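Incident log entry.

Two folding requests arrived from the same account within the same minute. Monitoring flagged them as a possible duplicate submission, but the sequences differ. Recording both here for audit purposes.

Request one:
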Amino acid sequence: MTTVPAAASDGIPRPGGEVVLRLEDATFGYGERPVLSHADLTVRRGEVVAVLGPNGSGKSTLVKGVLGLNELMSGRVEMFGVPREQFADRARLGYVPQRHTLSGSVRATAEEIVASGRLPRLGLLGRMRATDRQVVARALEVVGLADRAATEVSTLSGGQQRRVLIARALAGQPDVLLMDEPTAGVDAANQHVLADVLARLVAQGVTMVVVTHELGALARLLTRIVVVDAGRITFDGSPQRYAAERDLVHHEHDSHHHDSELEAELRTRAASLPQGPLDTRGGRRG
């Protein structure tokens, strides 16, 4: 894992400066059809970047483009300073794909699913050693499923299955975690559990790019927000700037639930800032 960046006053680590992902005028698509065009994006170590946008806008294509899962039609993609086509250390990138749950036909335990994420570190002929099994156990512990290691995944709830997928990505000990709709199909209570899991990873220095259509419980973790609309990046800035410019960023049909959640989160952050000895704490005692 990476070195933990310095934390700001709200306790969330902030970027340390090293560029881990860079897109320069990148256009991604399938065949001859571009889906995301002329994208410029730089992600630095320690950042937690939310990629927002309506369905079909191209936000998932952005993540898949970084991973090489769709065609780079023009422009440039770099990972840790290396062009995408030359980058070989894939274990440094952890990926949680867009799916609500694991298939009900999967006959495997949570531990077995998570262990499969260790394969990039083992090689084609590698065998699990004691240290590898410890990494798998730790990944399950981080997502709060250590007591479900031997449980068949088909019997787990949707939220628990999402956490298994995150643990699988963590088993590769990535420096950057790319997640496509990690809270999709997960109820509000389990979204907060997921957010707590991700907060622990942020504290360990894991950089994150999270594709989502709703901020929800993840809002408190963010250092940046990127908006994709109609195949273009239309906004890239801080959560505070996003809240201030929301009416210019989104079409009317796509703005409301992101903004109310973010405004509430910004108010919470402001209330939690360090106060002087003469300040009083707001709120009621219960």
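Request two (distinct sequence, not a duplicate):
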Amino acid sequence: MGRFFLGMDGGGSSARARLADYSGHWLGEGVGGPANAGNDLEGAAAALEAATNMALSVAGLSRHDRADIVAVIGAAGAGDPKVAAKLAAAPFGFRDLRVVTDAEIALEGALAGGDGGILIIGTGSQGYGRVGERRFRVGGWGPSLSDGGSGAVIGRRAARRALEAHEGLAASSPMTAAIFERLGGSAATLSAFGKTARPADWAALAPVVFSHAEADDPVAKAIVMAGTAEIEALIGRLVTEGIGRVALMGGLAASYRPRLGHRFAGLLADPVGDALDGALSLARKDVAP
């Protein structure tokens, strides 16, 4: 039985780790780079390793203490069993390691192990729910085909509108000008960005869009309105599966919540904890008698 528990969250924008002792006291936290295991398994493993090293350092522990750690990783992309197995086989050196999806640890943390649903809105977006032994997922398949309302989708739409405004194909606004300048100030530099940008790079543009929407920028408001409709559709799909409460989580949750229709007011719940709390809870359950 390990003396320490480590919860890790691997998302499209960053990796996070939280270390706790057997009594539940937090000992240290760490962060790393983007960690979507489905898109870049080696990069995700390296980012999670960096976050782990930081958490251990803060706690005053060394690599030798890893043999006393029971860990759970919740990773974007781990819904693919092959990806999860490969990440679990990475040489982290823990006593025990289990890999689940990032949605699973977020649900565990938000609802303290109870039934209900979550909607994660960050670099990507995904709804996930639990009713008894049944699990239900909607979204989270990547911004090219899915992830409505996510930071990556919002950022990509804004960049496209910025290019269209530059070429006179659509109306310009302060937001389109700001995005255009941020991406190099020319069609060529914007095009080059688009050819190499990762989801996290697109998502980094989302705060610009939301801030301009707050200032009544018409183009930004239209993008945010379309994103809000997509978020409402995801919540509505959870409801049709019998989910009675939904906690919003992720970096854009606070931006969307006041924009949601009144029909969702009685459905939304405040998260009890975060994804790392959920990962630590699952780690403790792994060693429970």
